[in-house]
Amino acid sequence: MRALGISLLLLVLAGCTGGELKADPPVQAEGPALTLAFGGDVNFEGKTQELLENDPATAFGPVVDELKSADLAIVNLETPITTRGAAQDKRYLFRTDPRAVTAIKAAGVDLISLANNHTLDYGPDGLFDTMSAAWHGGLPTVGGGRNAAQAYAPYRTTIRGIRVSVLAFSQVSDLAEEWTATKIKPGLAVAAIDRRQALAAVRAARKTSDVVVVAPHWGSEHDRCPTPQQQSFAKDLSAAGADVVVGAHAHVLQGQGYLGKTFVAYGMGNLLWGSGLLTPEDWRGGVLQLKLHGRTVVERNFTPTTLSPETRQPTEFTASEADKERARVNNLRDCAELQQTP
């Protein structure tokens, strides 16, 4: 039954893929080399929570080499780590326990974004507990905080002398006002409410960083093409000085390419997701590895994945199906209005 289930899923997915895979043209740039990696959305709910009951260190399965080999790997965590707090008035509520930190760290992830529409599913207590569990587990966070100054602040690190800043913002309108951090209120960095502050944070980071990365949570769920709001914000982020913009929230893969000199991947699909998979494309995700020289992305390596029906762990496609999936994602560049080269 296991083999049959996987085979049927791959047949469904194969029906939505296709096209000829063409290699990216070479991009030339000067400067020190840096490799970044990004995974799709991650949550621990249902089957993925069960993975923590077994062995958190293997929760992500074998598809983690691209995360582990990068200088800096980032994912969006959509599950607060808490047993406290008041459930918010919303349809989907997630929460997990500190073993999630063990699982994420074991997968090679170096940083998690909290700027999404689930981190406050159980209110400020859930946010505080999440940040505390991550801190105690040695896993930095970005996009949330005890006030706006902390929520909008970048995560900063230096890799072989390269100063890297990562910022995360939510552009999701649901509960946006209630969840936005202010001078005196904990919460998230929400560009849907305060785009001006988000862009000011990017401009400030640009002045003191060699590479600026932004992880927005945006778009329309299950829509493979970015919304006008995504495209408008991407242009603003590029103008403010972002070098790389890799987003989440749609739960399907969206276009990847260049917006001027800024590399944009509008949506990375689902990397490890345990509930609410409504369409065949919801089962897809992957790891995007980007090599930079200076501020410019000179090489892109996208490893597509599909979720296991039994465990909801990411599994790799066969070689031929992986090429078809890469070709499909490349074709999404058109409706995203992105270019193949800077």
Structure in words:
Mean pLDDT is 94; it is low at 1-17. This protein is of the alpha/beta class. The strands form four sheets. Strands 5-4-3-1-15-16-17 form a seven-stranded mixed beta sheet. Strands 7-8-10-11-13-12 form a six-stranded mixed beta sheet, with helices on one face. The relative contact order is 0.18. The chain has helices at residues 2-14, 47-54, 65-68, 99-106, 123-136, 148-151, 176-179, 195-207, 228-240, 319-331, 333-336; strands at residues 33-39, 41-42, 72-76, 111-113, 141-142, 144-145, 155-159, 162-170, 187-188, 211-217, 244-246, 256-259, 262-265, 270-272, 284-293, 296-307, 314-316. It starts with a helix and ends in a 6-residue tail after the last helix. The longest helix is centred in the middle third of the chain and has 14 residues, at 123-136.
In terms of topology, how is this protein built?
Elements (H helix, E strand, L loop, with lengths): L1 H13 L18 E7 L1 E2 L4 H8 L10 H4 L3 E5 L22 H8 L4 E3 L9 H14 L4 E2 L1 E2 L2 H4 L3 E5 L2 E9 L5 H4 L7 E2 L6 H13 L3 E7 L10 H13 L3 E3 L9 E4 L2 E4 L4 E3 L11 E10 L2 E12 L6 E3 L2 H13 L1 H4 L6
Parallel strand pairs: 1-3, 2-14, 3-4, 4-5, 8-10, 10-11, 11-13
Antiparallel strand pairs: 1-15, 6-9, 7-8, 12-13, 15-16, 16-17
Helix pairs in contact: 8-9
Strand-and-helix sequence, N→C?
Answer: HEEHHEHEHEEHEEHEHEHEEEEEEEHH
Q: Please give the alpha-carbon distance between the first and last residues.
A: 47 Å
Principal-axis shape: globular
Spatially, the strands of the biggest sheet line up as 5-4-3-1-15-16-17
Characterize the largest beta sheet: strand count, sense, and whether it forms a barrel: 7 strands, mixed
Structural class: alpha/beta
Output mean pLDDT: 94
**Percentage of residues in strands:** 15-25%
Question: Counting H and I runs of at least 4 residues, what is the number of helices?
Answer: 11
- Uncertain segments are 1-17
